[in-house]
C-alpha cells in the first residue's frame, strides 16, 4: 500500500493508460480523482476505482478548455482532501500535418499539461513532497513521417518535464515523464489499427524486439514507481516503456 491516504489526480483517466494508472494507484491505497469527456466511460472507471475501497471522484472535463481544467482541479482537491500526485495523460492525437492536427496536439498534449500543472501547484506545494508524471511518447524522441503534430507535441512534453523539474525542485515537487511505445488495449489506437491499417499494425509489431505490443498496465507500473518514495531522488527524467521498440529503429 505505497499510496495509502495519498491523493492522486489523473487527467484523462477513463480508459486505456489513464484508467490503468488510476486503478493502479487505487489498488495501492490512494484516493483517486479522474476526468475525461465521455461520461459513460468516466463513470465506469470511477466505479472500478471505488471498488478498491477508497475515495473516487470523477467529473467531465474537456482538456482543451482552460476554464474546465481550472474548475476540475480544485474540485478534485476538495473531494480528495488535497493533491499529492498529478498525472497528465490525455492526448489530442493530432496526426495530420494541418491546422486541425496541430490545434489538437497543442491544445491538449501541451497546454492541458501546462494548465493542469499550474492549477495543481498550490496543492502540491502544500504537501512538500508532491509528484507530477507526464505521459509523453517515443514519438517525441524521433522524427516522424506519419504524425508530425503528435511527435512534436510529445517532444515538447519531454522538454517541459525537465523544465518543470528544475522549476519545482525547491518546492520538493518531482516531475518525470513516461514515453510509451505502441500500447494496445480495447478501443485504443493500435486496437483500431489492427483492423483499419493491418499493414501498419504488422510492421510496427515487427519493429518491437519483444515481439508484442505493450499493455496499459505496464505503463501504469512505471507511473506508480515514479510517484512513489522509491523514486524520491528521481526528477526531470523521461523513461521509455516500449519493449525495445526504439532499439528496433522505430520512426
TrEMBL record:
Gene3D superfamilies in the record: NAD(P)-binding Rossmann-like Domain
Family annotation (Pfam families): adh_short_C2 (PF13561)
UniProt cross-references to InterPro entries, sorted A to Z: NAD(P)-bd_dom_sf, Sc_DH/Rdtase_CS, SDR_fam
The family this protein is said to belong to: Belongs to the short-chain dehydrogenases/reductases (SDR) family.
Protein name in UniProt: SDR family oxidoreductase
Phylogenetic placement of the source organism: Bacteria, Pseudomonadati, Pseudomonadota, Alphaproteobacteria, Acetobacterales
